[in-house]
Amino acid sequence: MEQLLTEKQEALLNFIEEYQMEHGGSPTIREMREYFGVSSDNSILKLLKALEEKGKIIKDEKHRGIKLLSNIKERLEKGAMKLPLLGTIPAGNPVASEEHIDQWLSVGEDFVLGGKQSFLLKVTGNSMINAGIHEGDMVIVCNELTPRIGDTVAALVDGQSTVKTYTMRNGQIVLKAENPEYDDIYPENELCIQGVVTGLFRYYKR
């Protein structure tokens, strides 16, 4: 027989559910305290213990204390696909880099134009800030699209990687910086377009 929740237990469970749906993770004890307007951890911990005993939540030491609720996990994973995060790419001066998979991340299918031919790169540097790409952003890159003038691309230029705007001047391909403090790049020997940037993700610190 399912155990009924008290009003406060149900309110906390609803808060956890809404928070997980919005953030993809669980709230901290401090955030739960602030939501309920209490100053003591004890009242929150008692509610969490009751929810755990009634089978409503499962504790997880690795993920802020509470595993994703089963209904939230199902909703978050529906229509999602896994893309590899292949390290970092400079939005600044190009640097030598070795491609490797750091981790796999779930991304909504609607955001991915190239399907399984897409991957993620984490941006370092600020040469593309006027194009809305900031340091720390993760860009979605599709390697099966042919770049057009004005596209943002991930490129390997003379053995070094960078993210820039793809353009052309006097018949020569130019990788244009979207920040006047950075120089444009004129490939000297080798240019390999690794993919066209089709979107980005940005996390805000809390």
H/E series: HHHEEHEEEEEEEE
Helix content: 10-25%
Distance between the termini: 40 Å
What form results from the Cα inertia axes? elongated
- Biggest beta sheet attributes: 8 strands, mixed
**Integer average pLDDT:** 83
Kindly provide the radius of gyration, computed on alpha-carbon positions and rounded to a whole number of angstroms: 23 Å
Which strand order do you get reading across the main beta sheet? Answer: 4-3-5-6-10-7-8-9
Structural class by helix and strand composition: alpha+beta
Instruction: Please indicate the percent range of residues in DSSP E strands (runs of 2 or more).
Output: 25-35%
Note down, in words, how this protein is organized.
- This protein has helices at 7-23, 29-36, 41-53, 70-77; strands at residues 59-60, 65-66, 80-90, 103-108, 118-124, 138-142, 152-157, 160-169, 172-176, 191-201.
- The strands form 2 sheets. The protein has an 8-stranded mixed sheet, with no helix packed on it.
- The longest helix has 17 residues, at 7-23.
- The chain contains 4 helices and 10 strands; from the N terminus they run αααββαββββββββ.
- Helix 1 (7-23) crosses helix 3.
- 22% of the residues lie in helices and 32% in strands.
- It is of the alpha+beta class and 206 residues long.
- It folds into 2 domains: 7-76, Winged helix-like DNA-binding domain superfamily/Winged helix DNA-binding domain (Arc Repressor Mutant, subunit A, Orthogonal Bundle); 80-201, Umud Fragment, subunit A (Ribbon), CATH 2.10.109.
- The two termini are 40 Å apart.
